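Technical annex B. To support the medicinal chemistry partners, we prepared a structural model of the target in complex with hypoxanthine, based solely on the information shown next.
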Amino acid sequence: MQHSSSSDNRPVAKIGSKNSFYYLLNRLSFFYFMLKYCMSIGLISGSGLYEIDGLKVCGEKPVETQFGAPSAPYRLGEIESIPVTFLPRHGFPHSIPPHKVNYRANIQGFKLLGIDRIIAVTAVGSINPDIKPGSIIIPDQIIDFTYGSRESTFYDSGKVVHVDFTEPYCREMRSSIISAAHKTDINVYERGSYICVNGPRLETAAEIEFFRRSGADIVGMTAMPEAVLSRELEICYCGICIATNFAAGITNERLTTSEVIETMNASTERLKTLLKAAIAEIPQNRSCGCKDALKDSGL
Ligand code: HPA
């Protein structure tokens, strides 16, 4: 797919024509937002988490990107006086399956709003028998099984960029979340390998056994390409995963989506407490490598 780009071939924003009234209005409200929200955390929510207690919503911001529309208008709000920009990944109401999410539009939309840090909440199946349903995992690694089936780069024409992805999740944000978990006495798995599948079907028992032998702890359908697209735009990205079920074949139970939603619902209070504490814990200035991800990445 073609997309417009600046002279150095980095993707650029395109919100309407430059001379239009709506363009000016958009820029004005953008600058107002930037003034008010000198530091904002992006929050992508997954299945079962559409509202956050304590999130004071101040407005909505529909954004159009060069890749089309994000899953929903961004909700601008505050948690404990910290500006938060919230996007339900599957739309509101939930209608977009994981393989149809416009990941490029979602991540570029955050960038256009000036967001440089994203926390992504996702439901996952547990492959590791120690990780029981209801557990919270802060993953540190990703294995990508969606590769080739989703638009997974901003650099598919023009400049050739190979972004470093050794550590797919932002180290600084992970440690802020882990320290928030300690402070709030919430048990979390402090690391884990997330294998991302295309879905929408669930896995076979043989696939899960194969993933387990490959070192995966949890399986989900959305961390990729979200994580790599964020890295390509030098946005810090980290995940908070809720194990909603044991993955196929780990127990003899048949998997149901109602089990996923029920476990997610049962975990939301802990999740919200963790989110609030984590958002307050993230330092104002970034000192991780994500902000310089494009340095020395081009050919
Ligand atoms: N597999 C894939 N994605 C999931 C699962 C699962 O078992 N549970 C929640 N998301």
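Notes passed to the chemistry partners:
Residues 1-16 have pLDDT under 50 and may be disordered.
The beta strands are 41-45, 55-61, 74-79, 82-88, 117-126, 136-137, 141-144, 193-196, 218-220, 236-246.
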